[in-house]
């Protein structure tokens, strides 16, 4: 029969148990803030065939309708491999007006790569269209031309986009194609990058301008303020506005945003966006990639895949675009995701036409590191009329198309031209 355990033995064991429990809890919490790693399916080119040149006759649509929402999608069967390959096949339009169709094969598809279409969260509430405008206009050129805001671009058809490689822009498909034809102007499509420096005065164009170091310090401080915007009130913004009003008119004009326009070499749109291909699921494929003729010297933002935004701490998303009601100015906003499905994010971010195509991003830690990194997890599609219950009744929501493992694999293939570069997200 064992005697009592000595205190000198019991204490270390107890302390060790507490340390292990705390470490396990910290790891669980840390996992919530860390980018998950994904083994991706491969999207490979099967064959490419030439098509007749488009008419380029479509006109932009202010609002999209007919989107099949979460409850509506529950009644649809899960797509087969053949269906997915059909939806992920794509058209390419070149700057000379020619067009091709590329069919694809999807390999290494597994359950981890495809989320259930029945995924949904709590019940929805009617979207509040009116109320306090929570958008932030970024009028300071030294601020708007620094990362992450510098990744936002303006599309010549009137939309926004985001740089996802040194020379590739991710935007919404409806900014390029209405489902039947390409928009008027796509043949001469251009992308506008906010200019960083004025041509006038010292410290303007060129690397040796005076005050460069000071600007960088200021930018760093401003970005730190930006990171805290989620908890900051509008009072800080008003304060900044007062300081801007004290500037001379000439100084204010020199800070007015201007764009450097770059021609688009080619555009790629998934067939899932086309009428009659995806039926009510067309909104799930409202994304396109533009390849620029010349890469701008601007940092891009990587793509990311996250299984649930609502389960993240705060569950907030961020995006910046060029809203029509604030011409030439970059507009930033953040908000919580209200609902999410396999392919769509429903939220109440204040937005106006022009912001469609903006890159929706979040910040999480890199695996094994303490460094935070922003990644694009979706494309803001805009205000849409959604068939929520599958009975034909329409409700209005702000909708973003989320980056799924399959879409990541396809977009990555478009960017690199080699699916072997796209095996892990």
TrEMBL record:
<dbReference type="InterPro" id="IPR043504">
    <property type="entry name" value="Peptidase_S1_PA_chymotrypsin"/>
</dbReference>
<comment type="similarity">
    <text>Belongs to the peptidase S1 family.</text>
</comment>
<keyword id="KW-0645">Protease</keyword>
<dbReference type="GO" id="GO:0006508">
    <property type="term" value="P:proteolysis"/>
</dbReference>
<keyword id="KW-0325">Glycoprotein</keyword>
<dbReference type="InterPro" id="IPR018114">
    <property type="entry name" value="TRYPSIN_HIS"/>
</dbReference>
<feature type="region of interest" description="Disordered">
    <location>
        <begin position="194"/>
        <end position="263"/>
    </location>
</feature>
<keyword id="KW-0378">Hydrolase</keyword>
<dbReference type="GO" id="GO:0004252">
    <property type="term" value="F:serine-type endopeptidase activity"/>
</dbReference>
<keyword id="KW-0964">Secreted</keyword>
<feature type="domain" description="Peptidase S1">
    <location>
        <begin position="144"/>
        <end position="186"/>
    </location>
</feature>
<dbReference type="Pfam" id="PF00089">
    <property type="entry name" value="Trypsin"/>
</dbReference>
<feature type="compositionally biased region" description="Basic residues">
    <location>
        <begin position="197"/>
        <end position="219"/>
    </location>
</feature>
<feature type="compositionally biased region" description="Basic residues">
    <location>
        <begin position="239"/>
        <end position="249"/>
    </location>
</feature>
<dbReference type="InterPro" id="IPR050966">
    <property type="entry name" value="Glutamyl_endopeptidase"/>
</dbReference>
<protein>
    <recommendedName>
        <fullName>Inactive serine protease 35</fullName>
    </recommendedName>
</protein>
<dbReference type="InterPro" id="IPR001254">
    <property type="entry name" value="Trypsin_dom"/>
</dbReference>
<feature type="compositionally biased region" description="Basic and acidic residues">
    <location>
        <begin position="220"/>
        <end position="238"/>
    </location>
</feature>
<dbReference type="InterPro" id="IPR009003">
    <property type="entry name" value="Peptidase_S1_PA"/>
</dbReference>
<keyword id="KW-0732">Signal</keyword>
<keyword id="KW-0721">Serine protease homolog</keyword>
<feature type="signal peptide">
    <location>
        <begin position="1"/>
        <end position="24"/>
    </location>
</feature>
<dbReference type="GO" id="GO:0005576">
    <property type="term" value="C:extracellular region"/>
</dbReference>
């Amino acid at each position: 029969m064992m005697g009592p355990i000595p205190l000198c033995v019991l204490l270390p064991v107890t302390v060790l148990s507490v340390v292990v429990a705390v470490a396990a809890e910290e790891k669980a919490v840390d996992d919530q803030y860390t980018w998950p790693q994904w083994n991706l399916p491969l999207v490979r080119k099967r064959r490419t065939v030439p098509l007749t040149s488009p008419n380029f006759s479509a006109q932009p649509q202010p609002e999209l309708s007919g989107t099949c929402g979460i409850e509506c999608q529950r009644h649809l069967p899960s797509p087969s491999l053949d269906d997915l390959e059909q939806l992920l096949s794509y058209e390419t339009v070149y700057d000379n007006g020619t067009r091709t169709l590329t069919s694809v094969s999807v390999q290494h598809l597994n359950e981890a790569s495809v989320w259930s279409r029945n995924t949904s969260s709590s019940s929805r509430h009617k979207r509040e269209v009116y109320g306090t405008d929570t958008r932030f206009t970024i009028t300071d050129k030294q601020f708007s031309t620094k990362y992450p805001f510098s990744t936002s671009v303006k599309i010549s058809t009137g939309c926004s986009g985001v740089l996802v490689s040194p020379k590739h822009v991710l935007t919404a498909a409806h900014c390029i194609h209405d489902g039947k034809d390409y928009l008027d102007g796509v043949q001469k499509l251009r992308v506008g990058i906010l200019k960083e420096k004025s041509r006038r005065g010292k410290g303007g164009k060129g690397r040796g301008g005076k005050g460069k170091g000071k600007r960088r310090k200021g930018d760093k401080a401003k970005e730190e303020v930006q990171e805290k915007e989620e908890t900051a009130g509008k009072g800080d913004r008003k304060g900044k506005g007062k300081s801007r009003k004290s500037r001379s008119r000439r100084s204010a004009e020199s800070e007015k945003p201007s764009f450097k326009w770059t021609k688009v070499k080619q555009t790629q749109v998934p067939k899932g966006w086309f009428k009659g291909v995806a039926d009510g699921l067309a909104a799930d494929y409202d994304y396109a990639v533009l390849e620029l003729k010349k890469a701008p010297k601007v940092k891009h933002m990587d793509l990311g895949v996250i299984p649930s935004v609502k389960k993240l701490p705060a569950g907030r998303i961020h995006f910046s675009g060029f809203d029509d009601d604030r011409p030439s100015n970059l507009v930033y906003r953040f908000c919580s995701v209200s609902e999410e499905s396999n392919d769509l994010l429903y939220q109440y971010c204040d937005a106006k036409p022009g912001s469609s195509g903006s890159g929706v991003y979040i910040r999480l830690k890199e695996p094994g590191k303490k460094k935070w990194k922003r990644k694009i997890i979706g494309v803001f599609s805009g205000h849409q009329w959604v068939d929520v219950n599958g009975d034909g009744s329409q409700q209005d929501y702000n909708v973003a198309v989320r980056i799924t493992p399959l879409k990541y694999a396809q977009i990555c293939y478009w960017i690199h031209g080699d699916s072997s570069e796209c095996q892990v997200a």
